[in-house]
Design brief:
Layout lengths: L21 E6 L12 E5 L4 E8 L2 E10 L3 E6 L5 E5 L4 E3 L2
Antiparallel strand pairs: 1-2, 2-3, 3-4, 5-6, 6-7
Amino acid sequence: MNRRGALISPVKVYSHTLGCSITGGYVYRGSAVKAARGRYFYGDYCSGTLWSLRVNGGQAVDNRREGHIGSLSSFGQGVNGALYAVSLDGAIYRLS
C-alpha cells in the first residue's frame, strides 16, 4: 500500500538573491543564550550569512541576520542543547 503524506507549505522561502545554497540547522534549545532559545538557525554556504527565525502559527516570524560563517556546511547540536556550526575552512563555531 502506497501512502502519501500531506503536502505542507514552507514556513520560509529563501531567494537566491541572498545566496546559493541553504544549510539547514536546528532550533536552539541551550541555556547559554536565553534570547536565542526557540529560534531556528540556518545559513547560506555561498554568502556565509547566518540567519535565525521563530515559527508562530506555521509561519516564519522575526527573521534576522545573526552573523557570518564562511563556507558554512553543517550544523550540530550538543547534548546540553548547545548549537554548533561547521565551516569547510575547518572551523567549528559554538553559539554563545
